[in-house]
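Low-specificity L-threonine aldolase (Holdemania massiliensis), 340 aa
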Amino acid sequence: MIDLRSDTVTQPTLAMRRAMAEAVVGDDVYEDDPTVNELQRKAAELLGKEAGLFVCSGTMGNLLAVMSQTQRGDEIIAGRHSHLVTHEVGGAAQIAQVMIHPVDHPQDWIEPEAIRTAIHSEDIHEPQTRLVCLENALSNGGIVPLPLLRQTYQTAKALGLRVHLDGARIFNAAVACGCSVSEIAACADTVTFCLSKGLAAPIGSVLVGDRAFIERARRNRKLLGGGLRQAGILAAAGLTALDTMTERLQEDHNHAKLLGELLAQIPGIHVEKERIQINMVFFKLCNDKIQPADFLKKLNKEGILTNPEDHGLFRFVTHYGIMESDVRTAAEAVRKIMEG
Ligand SMILES: Cc1ncc(COP(=O)(O)O)c(C=O)c1O
């Protein structure tokens, strides 16, 4: 099968599996695991922050960021379609017990003006606005321009707010905007990034920020049951991912562009071409002869895996397991289906 569902389906490389087998480990709840400590140090250094914390997933990293920078009843500002709002089981509300002030924007950006409008006053009737949650790269496959990210951060800071960045795909964003991850991370107080997804590690994310924040997050991680013991086995794969997998992301982006171009030539397919900035291609069917569920079934039969359409759009995601030949095969399969 050519699996275009997500970059979360990537398999760990041989180098990762070897590093896992050979990892020197200790009990990470005692902060004794040298491999975890090295991953956290390296991640913090790369992103230009004081400290890092290895966590089970991007979802856990984002939740810890909210829990560790707010109090019950506070309000956070976040994009209406952001992963934190739409795909994290409402953890911010359920567990951190904060209110979410969702922000709308045609490209899912958060502009400075949106923060000025959303922030509450000190009036005792109003919840306290504490935190702005940004995302880059965006779940919609786009990136936020760096100058805008900087302005948004400066505005939030001037208003006394903390800023968290969901940088699950921050390395894709950096490649796409031709900057370093630390330049993006400088636009937030705390950042989560994923070692799984495009970097192909089997498990894990890192949360980075100042030392005091990371100590609060460590306590909250224990509360959530995320205090792992010989976690160096997993961190070893993460270190290999940082050493070997970040540079190659351009290849995934090139494949997404190629896939977008090939799909756009097929009658009945409309590709959202302007959205192809990282490794995601969004498209819709504009042909009455085939229904989305039928299209999905036929794709599957042709050996192409993808998720059901969401808000009228299908998404193909390129990643480490997808070669140029797979891109061409997938486009051919779509053509065959559309031509009936
Ligand atoms: C933008 C974004 N943030 C956070 C996450 C959550 O990561 P995880 O699946 O590791 O919990 C994802 C997962 O796809 C994501 O796309």
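The first strand starts at residue 2 and ends at 3. Residues 248-338 form a domain with the Aspartate Aminotransferase, domain 1 fold (CATH 3.90.1150.10). ok done for today
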